[in-house]
Amino acid sequence: MIRCLVNFLEFLVNRFYRNRWYPRFYVLETVARVPYFAYISVLHLYESLGCWRKADWLKVHFAESWNELHHLLIMESLGGDRQWLDCFIARHAALVYYWIIVFLYLIAPHSAYYFAELVERHAYHTYDTFLQEKGDELKVLEAPPIAINYYRDGDLYMFDEFQTSHLPAERRPIVNNLYDVFVAIRDDEEEHIKTMVACQKSDAQFILKSPHNKVIHSA
Prior knowledge:
Number of helices: 11
Radius of gyration: 17 Å
Mean pLDDT: 90
Low-confidence stretches: none
Oligomer: single chain
Structural class: mainly alpha
Number of strands: 0
Order of helices and strands: HHHHHHHHHHH
CATH topology: Ferritin
Number of domains: 1
Helix content: over 70%
CATH superfamily: Alternative oxidase
């Protein structure tokens, strides 16, 4: 059911945003943040009720939302949010998606993580296709300041936190032009996929740790 729903949504996006890359990415990144908001909301509910406390999961999911926020800020800097209709679609889709994921995460966390995995896989392939089609054009365009600050010059603690397959500072994107920015975003989506897959494992709540906590525990 989840795969069919994601396939249907992909079909609509592909049809409506066929040749409008930046608005498409704006919508995609507005929606992509939502699962992590939903996970955090439910985890805080569990903690408030005294059912389950898992600080590492809160850190990882917040770092994922922080990463998606910067993808969104990059798309806004490129003009993806200039049309009122695109903003309307993105925000209303995000609202509906949030409550779907909250409900799903309450009754079947594995399915909620699988849903996000499929969405992130779609994002990865969309960015990869864009790089293949527009790579030469992107290489002569400057990287937005927000991307340079997030990937290269700013505080990279949060950038490391969502990548559960890496230790801190293992991955440092090169950001010299707009092509590099989209390579970094595409590779971020791959890291989200890995984290969503890890969250679906039967023993995930016992072994999944944030990258910085891995360093503490291994020391």
